[in-house]
Design goal:
The protein has about 450 residues and is mainly alpha-helical. The protein is built from 20 helices and 2 strands.
Length: about 450
């Protein structure tokens, strides 16, 4: 567990003891060693699957490349867990890009790595399990587990469908408990922050290169830009602009928070650049999340105490003014994104046709133009609305794992999509089911019902 101290991630204002510890780490110890370890582990996890893919090719099983990376990751975690866990997390973040060189089999890394990492953590920290128990949280987890198993059995879902679905669902919970049980010092947290910022700077620079020469990234196999309302939809090293948007926004929020506490100008400068990168990705939810996170942080700080409230207002003024100026600079594009949202989800955006779900009607695209329909037909809205009907018809436990909004429901195309007419919605059809996993909560409500949603 990280120490519950109020000292910041970067060492200034951390007090004499913390400052001395950070200085010691800079003179040659944990931080440097973690840097070397992380670089070596990342290199091994990149080189091994690429080499196997080049040697084996299509002649052998595709999962060999993923198994090699997973074995290296597990071995690294067993030796140096905190640094290795960060490398694993970043590896999974770029997994689609890595698969371009290592083959699609590398995408099984998380399924192979996370269960073993969880078992290693549980074995080593078994004495701390009881201390980490929290009744509300574990009660929620129990509700989810009951809903997942009971709904799958009651609805007669095939084991080859619901068992993989259970593994996929459990991955996130397993990672949560790994992080919950793993002892992490403040020095390691600071190191991880600097390491992620370093990766972020590389991503940011390559995003700038993509603005000037997007053909370089297309030649590498990365998807072409998906331009929106004049914004280039930058993605940098990521396979999709959405990941670039969330990653940039995540770093921007941390830099804004640190600037507010430490008053270092370079942090605000980088925060502005990462905020601009989030806008250039043309992803609306990531932009709104930066604004929402920033606003929530300010409110939380101002409500914390009535003392020195004027000084706390002042600490956020530079970041607030900077974000306002950036927003004004991109105002035409932001207005265009707002109008696109209205056209797509409220007006219909030129789509024709509708599916009647009884009490709910969903507009769908039926013009025959795939690109136009992809913009006009709100597959996410259809998933949300249909999930309400699935939860109603399979109350209170849902329809079972692998049957709605999940990867397994896409792989073994679920009969529920035919039953509720979603097979006619662009992006949800058997031939083109790409948008089935675009949003998460319809899966929770549809597969786990009200009980799972509460959990």
């Amino acid at each position: 567990m990280a120490n519950q101290s109020s000292s910041p991630i970067f060492p200034r204002l951390a007090g004499r003891e913390a400052s001395a510890a950070v200085s010691a780490s800079r003179r040659g110890s944990a931080s440097f060693n973690d840097d070397i370890w992380a670089l070596a582990l990342a290199a091994a996890m990149l080189i091994a699957p690429v080499a196997i893919h080049l040697v084996v090719g299509d002649a052998g099983p595709s999962w060999l490349s993923g198994a090699s990376a997973a074995a290296i990751a597990v071995a690294g975690y067993a030796r140096r867990p905190v640094a290795s866990l960060l490398v694993i997390a970043l590896y999974l973040l770029f997994i689609d890009t890595i698969a371009l060189a290592a083959g699609p089999g590398v995408k099984v890394v998380d399924e192979l790595t996370i269960p073993v990492v969880a078992l290693i953590t549980l074995a080593r920290r078994r004495h701390e399990v009881a201390a980490a128990w929290s009744s509300p949280r574990e009660a929620g987890f129990l509700l989810i587990a009951v809903a997942a198993l009971a709904s799958s059995v009651i609805n007669g879902v095939a084991p080859m469908t619901w068992l993989p679905g259970l593994v996929l669902l459990a991955k996130g919970f397993a990672m949560f408990y790994v992080a919950r049980l793993l002892p992490i010092s403040e020095l390691q947290v600071r190191w991880a922050m600097r390491a992620v910022l370093g990766v972020g700077l590389v991503v940011l620079v390559l995003g700038a290169v993509e603005l000037v020469a997007p053909e370089m990234f297309i030649n590498l196999g990365l998807r072409p830009p998906d331009e929106r309302v004049g914004l280039p939809a930058v993605k940098s090293l990521f396979f999709h602009p959405q990941l670039f948007a969330w990653f940039s926004g995540f770093i921007a929020l941390f830099l804004i928070a640190h600037h507010g506490l430490l008053r270092q100008r370079w942090m605000l400068g980088l925060a502005i650049l990462f905020s601009m990168a989030t806008i250039l990705s043309a992803r609306r939810r990531a932009m709104l999340s930066v604004v929402g996170g920033f606003g929530a942080g300010i409110v939380g700080d101002l409500l914390g105490s009535r003392r020195a409230i004027g000084r706390r207002f002042a600490r956020w003024a530079p970041a607030t003014l900077s974000l306002v100026i950036v927003s004004i600079g991109f105002l035409p594009a932001l207005i265009g994104l707002y109008q696109l949202t209205v056209d797509r989800y409220m007006v219909g955006g030129g789509v024709s046709g509708r599916i009647d779900f009884g009490p709910i009607v969903v507009d769908i695209g039926s013009s025959g133009n795939g690109a136009q329909d992809a913009q006009g037909a709100p597959a996410r809205v259809a998933l949300y609305q249909a999930s309400l009907l699935v939860a109603r018809d399979h109350f209170p436990l849902g329809a079972g794992l692998g049957r709605f909004g999940s990867w397994m429901s896409r792989t073994d195309y679920s009969d529920l999509y035919y039953q509720y007419g979603l097979d006619k919605v662009y992006g949800l059809s058997p031939r083109f089911p790409t948008f089935i996993t675009d949003t998460f909560w319809p899966q929770v409500l549809g597969e786990l019902g009200v009980v799972g949603l509460i959990g």
